[in-house]
Amino acid sequence: MAFSFVVRATDGAARTGLIHTPRGEIRTPAFMPVGTAGAVKAMFPEDVAATGADIILGNTYHLMLRPGAERVAALGGLHRFMNWPRPILTDSGGFQVMSLASLRKLTEEGVSFRSHIDGSMHVLTPERSIEIQCLLAADIQMQLDECPAMPIAHDKAAESMRLSLRWAERSRCAFNDLSKPGQALFGIVQGANYEDLRRESLSRLMEIGFPGYSIGGLAVGEGREEMFRVLDFTTPHMDAARPRYLMGVGKPADIVGAVARGVDMFDCVLPTRAGRHGQAWTPDGPVTITNARFAADETPLDPSSVCPASRDYSKAYLHHLFKAGEYLGPMLLTWHNLHYYQQLMAGLRAAIAEGRLAGFIADFRARTGETIL
Amino acid sequence: MAFSFVVRATDGAARTGLIHTPRGEIRTPAFMPVGTAGAVKAMFPEDVAATGADIILGNTYHLMLRPGAERVAALGGLHRFMNWPRPILTDSGGFQVMSLASLRKLTEEGVSFRSHIDGSMHVLTPERSIEIQCLLAADIQMQLDECPAMPIAHDKAAESMRLSLRWAERSRCAFNDLSKPGQALFGIVQGANYEDLRRESLSRLMEIGFPGYSIGGLAVGEGREEMFRVLDFTTPHMDAARPRYLMGVGKPADIVGAVARGVDMFDCVLPTRAGRHGQAWTPDGPVTITNARFAADETPLDPSSVCPASRDYSKAYLHHLFKAGEYLGPMLLTWHNLHYYQQLMAGLRAAIAEGRLAGFIADFRARTGETIL
Question: How many DSSP H helices and E strands does chain B contain?
Fold first, then answer.
C-alpha cells in the first residue's frame, strides 16, 4: 500500500524505474498527460490508458473553481469522477493562480485571487491546497510554491525560494494531518537559474524530507539550453532514491535531454494542445496537418503504429477534418500525439535498461534535427 | 453481390427485415447516423458501429464542396476516406443546396448555387449528383429532387413533384451508366401533403422502377400529426418488397410512429446534434444535462447499459464537462444518444419479429408521455 520508488537500471545520469502507488505502478521515465479540468481534453480515459499512460495530471486551480473540491469529494474523488482508476498527480494550484487568475495578492499566508471563470474571490494557502488535493484524492500531491517569471534578480529569487520553503514545511504538516496511506507529497525545488539558490532550496527540502522532488520554475520561457544548464547543476544533488519530476516539460527534445540528466517524470499540455490545433508529433518532428501539402496525402501518420489514430486515417482525411472543423480532427490528433509521447517514453526506458541511451539520443537527434540535447 | 431486401416478419403495417449490400447487411427498421462531412460528428467510426449502426449517411452537398468528390475518389472512396467499411447512403445534395447555399437558381436542368463555404459557384444536375455519389462510392444513392417548403399550394406542389419525377428518370439513366454492381438508387416520393400528388409521384416512380423508395418533403416543420397523416395515405401504396426510407426523421416518437406505418429506414442529425448541445435522450425522454439539478447527481444515464458513455460517467460529471466546455462532453453524449437510438431500433425490430409492437408502443407512450404515435 505504501508509496515507493525503485531504480531498475541507470545509463549515465539517466534512470529507469518503477513508482508503486496503491492505484498502480508508474514506469519511469514517465510522461503524464494533462487532464486540467477533470478530463484529458478530447480523449476517452480508456484510450489515454491504451497509449501507455500510467498516470495523469489534474489541475488544482481549475478543479477547485469548477466543479469544486468538495463536490468532487462528495462524488467519490477525482478518479471516480473522471473514470480514471489509475494514479493521478495534482499540482498545488499556485502556478495557475499566477498565470490565469486576476487580482492576485501574495502574502506570507498564501495567495488570494479572483476566479477567471466567474470573478469570485478565493484564497489558496499551503494548507488549503493540500486539503483540496486530499479531497480530490490525488495519489501524488504538490506543495504550494511560488513560481516567479525569469529573468529575476538574485535577491528576489532568493526571497521567493525561501517563501516556497516555508510553504513546503506548512504543506508537509497539512499533508501529515489530512492524507491517506499510500499518498505522497512532493517538495518543489525553486531558485530560478541560480546554482546557489537551487542548492539551498534542495538541501532544505531534503532536510524536511519528501518521497519525491519536483523541479519547478523551469519551462517558463528561459530556453532549452538554459533549462538544461539549471538541470546540470541541480539533478546531480537530488536524492537518487526519490523520483525527480520536471514540471511542465515539454517538447520531445526537452524530455530526451532531461531524461539524460536524470529526470524521471514529466507533464505538458503540448501533445493535447497541439493535437487540438492540427499539429502532429512524429519521430521526424512536428507536422502541421492543415498544410496544403497534406490535402491529397493518402498515407497515415504512422502505418506501422498500434494506435488506430496514427494508423487508420490518411493525412488527407485528418487535413479535411481540421478544414471542416470536425471534432474528430482534434480527437484523432490528440490520440496520435499522446501515443507518440508514450512511445518516446517507452523507447527511453528500454534504451536506459539496455545501456544504449547514447545511441537512442543520436538517432533522435538525426531524425528530428534537434541539436541541443 | 446484388442489392436486395427481404422482409422477415410483419406486425400490422410494420416490417422487420434485412437489406443486403456488398458492404454488409442492414437490419431494418434501421436508423442511420448522419456523417455530414465525412465523419459522424464527435464519434470514432468503431464506436458508431459498436452502437449497432449498420449504415451511416453522408451528405453530397458538403462532400462535393469539401474535400470534393474527385478528391474522395482519388483517395479510395468515402468508405476508405472515413475508415467506415460498412454501407453508406448518400443524399442527392438537393435538400442542402436549398437550405444552406445562397444565390440558388432552379431550372429544368438542375440547380446552380453559391457555396456557403467559400462562395464558389456550382451546378448540381441529376446527372452530376449521381456522378458525385458514384465517385463517393455510396452503396445507396438518392435521385436529385426538389423538396419544397410546406405549406405549398396544390399547383406549385404538383409542378415541383413532376420536376422531381423528370429528375428521377434522368438520375436512373445516369446511375445505369455510372454505378457499380450492388449499388442501389432510390426514387423519392414527393407531393407535399396532397394525397393525389403523393399517389401520382409514387406510381410514376414505380413505373420507372427502383430498388427502394424514399419519402421526401416531410419533417420540414409540418408537425408530427400531419407527417403521420401523409404516411397513412402513402406507405400502404408503396411496393412492399422494397425498403421505404423516411428522409430526415426524426425524434424517437416520430420513428416509432413511422415504423408502425411501415417505414424501414431513417436518418436524422438529432442524436448527434443534441449530444453536442448537452441533450441526452433516454427511455423516459430527453434530459438537458446542463440543468443545475444534475450538478451533484452521481448516477449515470443508464447504469445497465453496455455503452460506456451511458454507464461509466455520472450525470454530475457530464454536467461538469459541458459547463467546462470540454470536448469529452459532446463525445460522451453523442455516443450515448446514438446508442439509445440503436437500442430503440433493436427494440422495434424485436417487437415486430415477436408480434408485440402494440405493447412496445404502449410502453414507449407510457414512459415518454408522447401521445401522438
Answer: 15, 16
Residue owning grid cell 454501407: B87
A74 contacts B317? CB cut-off 8 A: no
pLDDT of residue B103: 85
Q: Dihedral through CA B283, CA B287, CA B289, CA B293, nearest 10?
A: -110
Phi, psi of A185 (to 5 degrees): -115, 130
A182 φ, ψ to 5°? 95, -15
Distance of CA A151 to the CA centre of its chain: 22
Mean pLDDT of chain B: 97
CA distance B32 to B87: 10
Listed residue (A126, A108, A123) closest to A187, CA to CA: A126
Which three cell numbers, joined as nine digits, stand for B230?
401523409
pTM above 0.95, yes or no: yes
Task: State the CB neighbour count (10 A cutoff) for residue A128.
Answer: 19
Assess whether pLDDT exceeds 90 at residue A122. yes
- B296–A71 C-beta distance less than 8 A: yes
**What 3-state DSSP class applies to B140?**
strand
Assign B101 a pLDDT band (cuts: 50, 70, 90).
confident
What span, in angstroms and rounded, lies between the C-alpha atoms of A94 and A123? 11
| Structure confidence by residue, pLDDT tens digits, A123-138 | 999 999 999 999 999 9
Judge whether B27 is closer than 8 Å to chain A, CB to CB: no
Please tell me if residue B292 touches chain A, with a CB cutoff of 8 Å: no
B312 annotated active-site: no
As a whole number, the mean pLDDT across chain A is 97
Whole-angstrom Cα distance, residue B326 to residue A336? 19
Q: How far is CA A366 from the centre of its chain?
A: 26
pLDDT of residue B129: 98
Residue A135 half-sphere exposure, CB side, CA atoms within 13 Å?
19
- For B98-127, what is the mean pLDDT? 94
Q: Could you tell me the sign of the dihedral formed by the alpha carbons of A142, A148, A152, A154, in that order?
A: negative
